[in-house]
Amino acid sequence: MPASIAARTRYFDEFFADAAGAGIRQAVVLASGLDTRAYRLDWPTGMAVFEIDQPAVIEFKTTTLAGLGAEPKADLRPVAVDLREDWSTELNAARERMREATTTWREHGFEPDFSVIKFEGERHDVGAYLDARGWTSVATPMARLLTDHGLGAIPQTDDNRQTMNGVTYYTSTLDTGR
Question: Which CATH superfamily includes the segment(s) 2-85+124-174?
Fold first, then answer.
């Protein structure tokens, strides 16, 4: 799991650095969770970062980081809104996986409390959703991220549990007709 987290972090860090380098001055992080890029990346002057997630997640993260004295390096604009629809079936299975992941992290001395980060309802294919609305999406599977960054593959489980192997990241660009 640490390799997949490293690959994912690098993917998004590079994406935002490239966008800022190209002159973009607003970033939107949907379902931002505990993402701290607004605090740790070197953003250009005038950069606004919108973090959108459930009110409880935004409150937890904001309170925790403020308690640590962390200051954002961009104009951080949290948007506390629930983006969920009917995602309950997949989430119920994911909750148990998150409990198992928490146990594994604790064995390594990390004390996460993933129970405060939850959502319910049906999942939708992000690429298909955006493409149907005028965007062009490029999918990058986790296996490619790992390979691109010289990291080893994630082993398959014997019990068909979902792992980070099934994760795909999307970069989507809105067709503005230019």
Answer: Vaccinia Virus protein VP39 (3.40.50.150)
